[in-house]
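Let's study a protein:

===
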Amino acid sequence: MRVEQITIPLIRSVVNRPKLSEILFRFDPWGNPLGPDRYSWPYPIYDRMRQDGAVAYRGLYQQWFVMGHAEARAALSSPSMVVEPQVDLMKVVRPFNRFRPAAASFLDNLLVLTDPPDHTRLRRLVSRTFSPRQMARMEQAVDTLAQRLVDEALDAAHNGGSTGAVEIFSSFAAPLPIQVICELLGVPEERWEWAAHISTKISLIGNVMVGFDPEEVSAAVDDMQAYFLDLAAQRRVEPTEDLVSALAEVDEDGDRLSDDEFIGMVGLLMFAGHDTTSGLITNSILALADHPEQRKMVRDNPGLWDNAIDELLRWDTPVQIIPRVAAEDVVIGDQSIKKGTNLLVMPAAANRDPARYEDPNVLRLDREDPQPVSFGHGLHHCLGHALARMEAKAALSAFVDGFGDYTYDPDSLEWKQSVVTRGTTKLMITPG
């Protein structure tokens, strides 16, 4: 038995008992990494962690933590840092070890959870499908979808009675990414609600420390597999310009995606693109409300939006941790990390590294070259980063123009209970 088969369920117990976590971590200089503040505003925790260095080991967690910007980039680009041992671990820990066969295979075929040479081959096959032509095809659709959702949210606010407020996560931030992904994949509009449900269920696998019902996830994977394999078969007969057609037809000297690899790629787009982009949108809406002078600056200077998106990613990234394992002895920063050791790269901490940024805890949308590590770095750099930036720009520019000097109700905020991704699940906004 691996030690993690004991420690991970214990950590889950602590996560689900806030009072217990406060007692356990009362005397830890880093504070309580599993308490409510971890979800609502974790950055003071990261500041305390960084006092132990850009790369620090904690015996309590049996982990190295990488918090420096340069060190994060070095770790993420190092061929000595791998991810597949994390998958092997997941598969022996409950509830992952209770998956049905399709869900277990799904884990094995996720691009983000593979190492070279498998990762190199898969990325080579699918990267050409994310072509400039494909992104250009999506740009108008993304703008249209974002504007439609903003208009619907404004109508709901104006018809919302005395408060004039509207809940933005469920009406705007969550629907937009899944609608964009469906448009990209070629899923018809009548199936969008189904896709959102499937994506929400499958995204539970990313929250190792909270746990989930393995039957719910397995059923969602089975449903997704049946639908998309049938759609791929149709597209091979009658191809269109959508991504399912491109993935179904990809062929490099006779090398093609297997059915399991195809489902792994589609599923990754659905849950990773959905969960993280919705978090980016809500985090940014909050940041702009808390910094009205920055909101006014970007509204008055729309040419600033591309840089603003990178600064908003730096300021409050939806991706909080990226796990790795040392495949061999390796040096990261000024620390020697032994083969087989677990390591967590902390993009949210790296994005506020004072060694990289002047005034890292200040939001400046005109900051020169923000260069966040929110999309990772190196061979696992997010394949969909251009699409995510496109969505965020369309969403936030339409929202700021439509909602004006909006405000939010801090007492209404509810946060994802996740140590991996960050964002709200409830956000009441009143138009200005």
